Amino acid sequence: QEADVILVIDSDVPWFPATAKPKETATIIHMGVDPFFSRYPVRGFPCDIPLVGDSAVAIPLLTQELSRSRFKAERAIAQRFQRVKAQHDAWERAARGRRDQVQHDEPLDFEWVSHCIDRVKDDETIFVNEYDLNLNQVQLTVPGSYFAGSPASGLGWGTGAALGAKLAAPEKTVIATLGEGAYMFGNPTAAHFVSRAYDLPVLFVIFNNQCWNAVKRAAKGIYPNGWAAKTDHWPFTNLLPSPAFERMADVHGGYGEVVEKPSEVLPALQRGLRAVKEERRQAILNFVCKHP
Q: What CATH number should be reported for the domain holding residue 262?
């Protein structure tokens, strides 16, 4: 919202206009093989400068070109760095504050579960996130370690994508973080069968809030004063009574556990990773979280 220049890299939807958008005077640069996304019948994101090319090739070239003129703007860059650092530090303090506020909550809070997941990850971890891993609580620094928001499929893509990531990088630890609705759509019986049959141990973490909150949140965002918003019984979003998802592991030779207490989140993650790393078994952790 405050930037003078925005570089959009390989993104068909770089921002949500209803939530936030650039100022009118900003220069928008789109980089990609097809920066206009010309196969889309309708797309309303402005582009002042298109850069056509593979971003893996274009970004190093652009960085090299910018470095030549860097000395001309050293002072401005240093000042901007200090402003951005102050904003980032404030953001981190706020994230820690939210985590500390909810760390003892029952049912579990997404922020606390996400923080605990951050504590057990390492540089050899790949995340496949379908919705609920909160990146405010996770520090990601390794390229290729995070996959989310796939445009290649619909709800439920995360389970299969996690298996694909493990197949492509068997030496890595793959953690799939899924909402329970997305998990249901991921054809779990077939997914867990494939995990066992092809020796693809993955840690499946289910953020179970007993609700399709993406649907509920979207409806509330569009119709904040509608009939659905006036009732506690939202149609087609309630997922109660909640299944014992962790038991899916039993019939596929894996490790399963339901977690309801905040003090058990970290130990449960450690047990799940032990099953995946040392025992070469898939694991399912069913974290019972707050119902929205």
A: 3.40.50.970
H or E element, residue 8: strand 5-9
- CB of 206 closer than 8 Å to CB of 159: no
What pLDDT was estimated at residue 229? Answer: 83
Cα separation, 277 vs 283, whole angstroms: 10
pLDDT at 107 over 90: yes
3-state helix, strand, coil in the chain (%, to 5): 45, 20, 40
Under 8 Å CB-to-CB from 258, ≥6 apart: which residues? 244, 245, 246, 286, 288
Distance CA 113, CA 109 (A): 6
Handedness of CA 183, 189, 194, 195 (dihedral sign): positive
For 31-49, write each residue's pLDDT tens digit. 999 999 999 999 999 999 9
Rounded to whole angstroms, the Cα distance separating 199 from 203 reads 13
| 226 assigned to some structural domain | yes
What distance in Å separates the CA atoms of residue 166 and residue 195, rounded to the nearest whole number? Answer: 9
Residue 246 lies in a domain: yes
Q: Tens digit of pLDDT for each residue in 187-210?
A: 999 999 999 999 999 999 999 999
Structural domain of 219: 103-288
